[in-house]
Amino acid sequence: SQQGEEDPQALSIQEGENATMNCSYKTSINNLQWYRQNSGRGLVHLILIRSNEREKHSGRLRVTLDTSKKSSSLLITASRAADTASYFCATDVKAAGNKLTFGGGTRVLVKP
Amino acid sequence: GAVVSQHPSRVICKSGTSVKIECRSLDFQATTMFWYRQFPKQSLMLMATSNEGSKATYEQGVEKDKFLINHASLTLSTLTVTSAHPEDSSFYICSARDGLASSSYEQYFGPGTRLTVT
């Protein structure tokens, strides 16, 4: 089964609203990463948060990590139509030789 | 920033033929490259890990004789889908890790190759 499970699977919001998506995982991690993928394209790295970090910001993105609950969240503030994409969390697992395991993804639609 | 390219971006082939996909790191040395496949509206599934100069490590359930991986240099890995069938149609994505970076956690992803087998 996948290491990361994401919630919700799909999200539809109006431009200007915030979008929050969550990722849960099962085993101890080195770090957790969030990626964006536009339809039919490659992945764009958004943020990496290490296991000893609790929160990280990058522009309109805010990522939290709760290792006790084995969960992470990605918040996109003041969303724009250009934020429409699929967002994936990926865990870098200690016992797996630094391979990334991807969650199922959240498809975000930002309506203008 | 680190750039990874893939070629071709799209390929259509007939059932039974073989297709080679190239993954190149353009401005860094990639000691490790990864190959993923992604079905429509699904997540990325790791197929194999490729280390320069050694045999690839395949994930459980991935046929190594069907998906041949060669990582002959620090900037190039190839995936050959042999005797392709329609069920091999998918989006194949490679990623590369910068072996010389002080923090080598980040993987840089290629733009993907869409394979359609008719």
Task: Give structural notes.
The complex is a heterodimer of chains A (112) and B (118). Chain A is an all-beta fold. In chain A, 0% of the residues lie in helices and 58% in strands. Chain A contains no helices and 11 strands. Chain A has strands spanning 5-7, 10-14, 19-24, 29-37, 43-50, 55-58, 61-66, 71-76, 85-93, 100-102, 106-111. In chain A, strands 2, 4, 5, 9, 10 and 11 form a 6-stranded mixed β-sheet that branches. Chain A has a 5-stranded antiparallel β-sheet with strand order 1-3-8-7-6, with no helix packed on it. By secondary structure, chain B is mainly beta. Classes of the chains: A mainly beta (112), B mainly beta (118). Chain A binds chain B through residues 2, 30-31, 33, 35, 40-45, 48, 88, 92, 97-105, 107, and chain B through 6, 34, 36, 41-46, 49, 91, 93, 95, 97, 104-112, 114.
Structure summary:
In chain A, 0% of the residues lie in helices and 58% in strands. By secondary structure, chain A is mainly β.
Please name the defining characteristics of this protein.
heterodimer; A: 112 residues; mainly beta; five-stranded antiparallel beta sheet; 11 strands; 0% helix; globular; B: mainly beta
The biggest beta sheet of chain A reads: 6 strands, mixed
Poorly predicted segments of chain B = none
Subunit arrangement of the protein: heterodimer
The 3D shape of chain A can be described as globular
Record the SSE blueprint:
The complex is a heterodimer of chains A (112) and B (118).
Chain A: E1 5-7, E2 10-14, E3 19-24, E4 29-37, E5 43-50, E6 55-58, E7 61-66, E8 71-76, E9 85-93, E10 100-102, E11 106-111
Parallel strand pairs in A: 2-11
Antiparallel strand pairs in A: 1-3, 3-8, 4-5, 4-9, 6-7, 7-8, 9-10, 9-11
Chain B: E1 4-7, E2 10-13, E3 19-25, E4 30-38, E5 44-51, E6 57-58, E7 67-73, E8 76-81, E9 90-98, E10 107-109, E11 113-117
Parallel strand pairs in B: 2-11
Antiparallel strand pairs in B: 1-3, 3-8, 4-5, 4-9, 5-6, 7-8, 9-10, 9-11
